[in-house]
Each structure stands twice: as structure tokens, then as C-alpha cells.
TrEMBL record:
Subcellular localization: Cell membrane
Protein's UniProt keywords contain Transmembrane: yes
InterPro entries given in the database record: MFS, MFS_Efflux_Transporters, MFS_trans_sf
Annotated GO MF terms: transmembrane transporter activity
This protein's UniProt keywords: Cell membrane, Membrane, Transmembrane, Transmembrane helix
Annotated protein name in UniProt: MFS transporter
Topological type in the membrane: Multi-pass membrane protein
Gene Ontology CC terms: plasma membrane
Transmembrane segments: 140-160, 172-193, 310-329, 350-369, 381-399, 411-430, 498-519, 556-580, 592-610, 622-641, 647-664, 685-707, 713-732
Length: 744
């Protein structure tokens, strides 16, 4: 599905560029006519030029010229313009000089027509969608047969090799999944190579004919190549406006007369070339001149890398889901006979719910801000993020007692239902006020799900025994955030935001059935006297069952306010708000935005996969986390427009953010009884600080950043602020006794 969607989108863009190159054959003469001072409706020769284009390209349904008010002036085939169905604008690529609109039947490529004073009309080329879809399906038809074969192989392996894979299911089922996924990825990549090569050849041919027509007009006036000036500038402008071109050259008698591109005329520099014999001649002997146009090697490689990168992220997301399923559906022993094994199995079965909470959080991350700004420009995205995290914080703070009263199992099912309903409704509505209300309800469900998961975990273990295996739930949350970001971006890019919301709602309903049928029923236990020590933070990476490492107030409060709060504020304001809007403004699609944001979740996942450090190294790790977070934000502010820098900075940011949150929750090396009465109220500040950072982050960033501009200066300022606040904290706590034995 990802390969097919990528092929349809990539091949369609190649066809748009081909049509724009063909339209330049008409655009040039019309604009020359307009610059003389004659009105657009008085242009002659349109039908001759347009008819020649339609005869050369059977996929071209119509060619039209419209004035600035949208009135039809010329049309080929002739006839009155029929009512145009409701269409929407296709997002342009960076540097694109034409506009594309689409509806259910056709694509429309529009080129501006300008005189000496401005745009006075547009040239519109209409192409059938069916031509693009049929071409893509023709190349991908063998892959459907291959997909069926891979599915049959998976089913046969599961049913026929039970004795083999039941001993080590994760190894053998994982190998079978990797083999099937690898075969489909390789086949899809080969199909993309074939399809993109065909599209690039057609586009190069159209560009070559467009340029050849302009040069042949000089030959019809009796001019030779030596009479023309500025040909090198013409070729360079052509190459600059069409970045996929590797070289353009005018060659006579095997000599390169004029060239653009470092490898012009060099064999093997381009992936393929297109040659046209011109009517121009050179010199007194009238040597024939030919035009060579080559497609750059990187033109195809860049498009293939885009598709392969999507396959790679999809593989990681599906692999994480598969590992989770293998753990969740493992047999569960009885509690009376094997209590420790029962507790471990119950934690494994609780992981899908922790996964789902983060999955629903990351699902709209790549496209929600853009969609909200389209519905309510000038603050819609910030309000949605504020509403979601604020409602989640309130639900988490006030749901624990309710979960204990009604039982953790029933409470979890209610939280899942509250999470599913708003997403299903958002898939069918486009009103911003309703979206705001539904995001509040979704936040309530998200917070209630986190609180119910914690209460269930506390009910599994003995009252005097601290909950174990909390790191598994942390890994499940990180995996869910990564998978949700990737899958939500892919669905929004290929099927629209409604499909992503629908997927999230159906996933929550499936989790509701899972909790009803597969989660072992438990009675909530009364809280132990020291239960306050297990209070969880509202941070998105907070492991609920782990004890909060509350040092003395002189250590904990400055760490929370000067280190923890800024990191959460930056995440809420930049990752959930500014970064998606900025990347969308640069012309990036939702799937690429999701891949960038998934790098942040991948860095957090790597932080928790690594073995936990010793408690006496916590302060040094916290220093490294603050330094890395500040450096990552500064790198985004200085060179965030460069794709490799942006990717590395986001990965480092995720790693350091997770490291900071983990350090703020590590237990002390000293006993828990020391100063318990004095420290009992400290952990309750963490949820308030977490909610404050997540909610106020978008509002603070939106106040500092004007959306049409680039937020790079704001990111750099936030990075400098994080470093200064971190330095202030470490300076304030430099003389405290036992600072290496306590967490900061």
C-alpha cells in the first residue's frame, strides 16, 4: 500500500512537470504577444499550437486559456467550458512555478500568463486521472500476486511449523516477517525504478521539445547559431528551473558549442539523454546542430530514497507492533500457583494499552497542526494542543480514585471508549469548534487511560512490593509514539487526515475488545501507606510504576523548574506545534514530516533500550541531557533547513529529552524512609509542571513566532534558554552534600 501510494504521488508529480514543460510551448508565444501590448483575447494561433500538443499526447484532454477573472477565452477542443467540479489544490513542491488542482476525474496544471505589468490570465492543461492510475496499476499488478504469495507463506508457516516457532516464537516469526517484508520492499522498489524512469524520460523529452521549439523559431527567421546571444544564460535558466536536468548542450560536428551543467557532453554522466536535431545551423558550412538534454543521476535516486525511507520507517513500526502482540498473547499462568509469573504476564498484557495511549498521541502529530491552521488561521493549532494536554492532565490527576472505586478493568474500558469516540467523530467533521471539543474529550480519555494503567499495575503486585518491569511499559509508550507518528503520517499523506483519525478510533475499539476479553480481571487494592512514593508524572515518557526519586527540596524543585519544565515546554511548543507547521510551509508532505518527528521518538526509544546507569552517575547524565538538548535546538536554529542536520538534531533531542525525564525520576541511593514526611508533597508538583509545560509550550512559541516566517531564530533562542537555565541549576546545586548519590 505504501509503495502504491508513493508511486501514484511521485508519478503524478512527474506528469505535472511534463505537462508544464509542454505548456511552455504555448506560454512563450502568448507572453511575447502580451508584452507587445496586445490584449490576451486577441492572440492568434492558439488552436494550432494546442492541437499539436493534443495530437502528440493522448492523455491531454483539453488546453484552455482563461483571463484573470476566470473567463474562458480559448479552448481546444473548442466549446464552452462546462461546470468545473469542486476541486482542491495539490500541495506544490519546492521551487514549483505552476499550480495543480484535482478532482475525482482530472488534474489541471495552470501556468501564469504575464504581460509587462503582471499576471493577466492562465494557461490550463487538463489530464485525466485515469491515465496516471492505469499506468501505475499496470506496473504494480504483479506485486498483488506476490503479496498474496507472501501472505500464504506466512499462514502456512504459522500453521505448519508450530513445533519450530513455538519454542522461540519471537525469533522464527520475526524472521518470517522480515523475509516477507523484505521481498515486498525489493519488488516495490524495482517497480518504482521502472515507473520513475519512464516518467523522467517523458519529462526530459517534453523539456527537450519545448526548448527545441524556441530555438527553431530563430532558424525560421533565417538566423544561425552564431547570430544568437545569451544562449548560455538561456540553458542555465532552463536547468535552474528544472533541477532534474543533468545537462543541456548544443553540439555541432561533435563539438560542444554551448553547454549548461558540469557533465554536459560527458558520456555516462547522466542516467539517460534525449537528442533532437534542430533546424539551426552553425558556421559558413551550415553544420547541423543538435540539442542534447540529460536527466541527472540524482533525479531518480532522490525519488527512490524517498520511497525506501518510507518502507524503512514502516518496517520499524510494524516490527514494534509485532513484538508487542507476541508478548501480549503469551499464555498466562494462574495467580495462586505461580504469582511471580502471573505478575510478569499481566505486565505483558498491559503493554498494548500503554502502547495505544502513546500511539493515539502520536497519530495526528504530523498533520493536526497544519489542518487546524487551515480551519482556524492564526492560533488554531496552538489551541488544539493546549486543549488536548490540559484535558489529559486534569483526567490523570482526578481519575485515580475513580479507577480504584470502580475497578481498574472497567475503568480502562471506559477510558478506551472515551478515546475512540472523539477520533471517530473527527474523521467525519471539519468544524474547528467541534474539533476543539473533541480534542478535549480525547485528552480526557488519554489521561484516564494513563491513570487506569497505573492503577491496574499497582493492583497486580503485592501491596508491600514495588511494581516491577516498569521499563517494559516505558518501551511500549516509546514504541507506540513512534508507530503512531509513522502510520498516522502515511495515512494522512495517501488517504487524508480522516483516514488517520478513523484508524485511531478503530484501534481504540480493538483495544477495548482486547481489554474485555484478554486482560485478566483484578480487584483494585487499597493504597499502601507509602503509595505516594509511586505517584507518576504527567510526562509522556514517565514510567507510572517507578518510584519518584525525590531528593531534598533544594535539589528537586530547582531541577523540576529549571530543567524538567523547559524540556517539556520545548517539546509541546516545537515538536507538536512549530516544527510540523514549518515543514509543511516548506512544501513537505505529511509522510516526510512524520518521518522527521519519528526520529525524536526513535531517540527516546534508544535511551530506554540501553541499560540503566548507576544512580551515582545521575547528575552527570542530567548534565549531558541538558547540554545535548540545548545543542540540538541550536543546531535546528542555525542549520535546520538542511535535511541531515535536522534529522540528527531531532534524534539527539529525543535521546536527551528521555534522558532528562528518566534522571528526574530515578530513586535516590539512600533509604526511602529518610525525610519522608518532608518530601511527601514534592512528587505532586511533577504532574502540575508537566501539564504546564505541555499546555503552555504552544502558546509561548506562537507568541514568539509569526507563522509565515521561519522559526529558526525562535528555536535557537529556546536552545540558548535551555542551556542557561541548566547552567543556573547546576550552579545553584554545586555545593549540596551527596549530590552524586542523589538524582538531580
Amino acid at each position: 500500500a505504501v509503495g502504491l501510494g508513493e508511486a501514484q504521488r511521485g508519478y503524478a508529480h512527474l506528469q505535472f512537470e511534463r505537462l508544464a514543460a509542454q505548456g511552455a510551448v504555448i506560454q512563450g508565444p502568448v507572453e511575447m504577444f502580451l508584452r507587445v501590448g496586445v490584449a490576451l483575447e486577441q492572440f492568434t494561433g492558439f488552436h494550432h499550437l494546442a492541437r499539436a500538443l493534443r495530437e502528440a499526447d493522448p492523455t491531454l484532454e483539453a488546453v484552455r486559456v482563461l483571463d484573470a477573472r476566470g473567463r474562458l477565452l480559448f479552448s481546444e477542443p473548442a466549446g464552452e467550458e462546462s461546470a468545473i467540479p469542486l476541486s482542491h489544490r495539490v500541495p506544490p513542491l519546492p521551487g514549483q512555478r505552476f499550480e495543480v488542482t484535482e478532482d475525482a476525474r482530472v488534474f489541471r496544471v495552470s501556468l501564469p500568463l504575464s504581460d509587462r505589468f503582471g499576471v493577466v490570465g492562465r494557461l490550463e492543461l487538463v489530464m485525466s486521472r485515469q491515465a496516471v492510475d492505469l499506468r501505475v496499476l499496470q506496473r504494480f499488478q504483479p506485486l498483488f500476486t506476490l503479496l498474496g504469495g507472501c501472505l500464504l507463506f506466512q499462514v502456512a508457516f504459522v500453521l505448519g511449523a508450530q513445533r519450530l516457532w513455538m519454542r522461540r516464537p519471537r525469533r522464527w516469526l520475526g524472521l518470517a516477517f522480515c523475509a516477507g517484508f523484505g521481498v515486498m520492499t525489493l519488488a516495490s522498489s524495482l517497480a518504482l525504478v521502472d515507473l520513475y524512469s519512464d516518467g523522467l524520460q517523458q519529462r526530459t523529452s517534453s523539456l527537450a521539445h519545448s526548448l527545441a521549439r524556441r530555438l527553431n523559431e530563430a532558424a525560421r527567421l533565417g538566423l544561425t547559431l552564431s547570430h544568437l546571444r545569451g544562449l548560455d544564460t538561456l540553458l542555465e535558466d532552463y536547468q535552474r528551473s528544472n533541477t532534474d536536468l543533468g545537462s543541456l548542450a548544443l553540439i555541432a560536428d561533435e563539438r560542444v558549442l554551448v553547454q549548461a551543467g558540469a557533465g554536459a557532453g560527458t558520456p555516462g554522466h547522466e542516467r539517460f539523454k534525449y537528442t533532437i536535431d534542430l533546424e539551426l545551423t552553425e558556421g559558413p558550412w551550415s553544420l547541423p546542430v543538435r540539442l542534447e538534454v540529460g536527466a541527472a543521476k540524482g533525479a531518480l535516486d532522490a525519488r527512490l530514497w524517498r520511497g525506501c525511507r518510507g518502507f524503512l520507517f514502516l518496517f520499524v513500526a510494524c516490527g514494534l507492533v509485532g513484538l508487542l502482540v507476541l508478548r501480549a498473547f503469551a499464555p498466562l499462568p494462574r495467580r495462586a500457583s505461580r504469582p511471580r509469573a502471573f505478575e510478569h504476564g499481566a505486565v505483558d498484557r498491559l503493554q498494548p494499552l500503554a502502547f495505544l495511549g502513546a500511539f493515539l498521541d502520536g497519530l495526528p502529530l504530523a498533520f493536526l497542526a497544519t489542518s487546524a491552521e487551515a480551519l482556524n488561521p492564526g492560533g488554531g493549532a496552538a489551541l488544539l494542543v493546549f486543549a488536548f494536554h490540559g484535558a489529559s492532565a486534569l483526567a490523570f490527576l482526578y481519575s485515580e480514585r475513580t479507577a480504584r472505586d470502580v475497578g481498574p478493568g472497567r475503568f480502562l474500558m471506559g477510558a478506551l471508549l472515551l478515546s475512540a469516540a472523539p477520533l471517530l467523530l473527527m474523521a467525519w467533521t471539519g468544524d474547528f469548534r467541534l474539533w476543539l471539543l473533541l480534542r478535549c474529550l480525547s485528552g480526557l480519555g488519554h489521561g484516564a487511560l494513563a491513570a487506569g494503567t497505573r492503577v491496574y499495575l499497582l493492583a497486580v503486585f503485592h501491596p508491600q512490593q514495588p511494581p516491577a518491569h516498569g521499563s517494559r511499559l516505558v518501551l511500549s509508550r516509546c514504541s507506540g509514539l513512534l508507530s503512531g507518528t509513522v502510520l498516522g503520517a502515511l495515512l494522512a499523506s495517501h488517504l487524508g487526515p480522516g483516514a488517520a483519525f478513523l484508524c485511531g478510533g478503530l484501534g481504540a475499539l480493538a483495544a477495548l475488545s482486547y481489554a474485555r476479553l484478554w486482560l485478566p480481571p483484578l480487584d483494585a487494592r487499597a493504597p499502601a501507606p507509602g503509595a505516594g512514593l509511586f505517584r507518576a508524572s504527567l510526562s509522556w515518557l514517565a514510567p507510572p510504576p517507578l518510584p519518584s526519586g525525590t531528593g531534598s527540596p533544594r535539589e528537586y524543585l530547582p531541577a523540576l523548574l529549571l530543567v524538567g519544565l523547559p524540556s517539556l515546554l520545548v517539546r509541546g511548543g516545537v515538536l507538536c506545534f512549530a516544527l510540523p507547521l514549518w515543514l509543511a510551509g516548506q512544501g513537505e508532505d505529511a509522510d516526510l514530516i512524520g518521518q522527521f518527528l519519528a526520529l525524536h521518538a526513535l531517540g527516546a526509544l534508544l535511551c530506554h533500550v540501553l541499560p540503566p546507569p548507576r544512580t551515582d552517575r545521575t547528575r552527570r547524565l542530567l548534565q549531558g541531557g541538558v547540554l545535548g538538548l540545548g545543542v540540538a535546538l541550536l543546531a535546528l536554529g542555525i542549520a535546520g533547513a538542511l535535511e541531515p542536520v535536522c534529522a540528527l538534531a531531532l534524534g539527539l533531542w529525543g535521546l536527551c529529552h528521555a534522558l532528562i525525564q528518566a534522571c528526574l525520576k530515578r530513586p535516590r541511593a539512600s533509604g526511602l524512609g529518610e525525610g519522608r514526611a518532608r518530601e511527601r508533597g514534592l512528587p505532586s508538583i511533577a504532574p502540575v509542571a508537566g501539564a504546564l509545560g505541555q499546555c503552555l509550550g504552544p502558546l509561548v512559541v506562537s507568541a514568539l513566532w509569526l507563522i509565515p516566517s521561519e522559526p529558526l531564530q525562535v528555536l535557537g533562542g529556546l536552545g540558548a534558554g535551555v542551556l542557561l537555565l541548566g547552567a543556573a541549576y547546576f550552579w545553584m546545586t554545586r555545593g549540596l552534600p551527596g549530590r552524586e548519590a542523589r538524582h538531580a
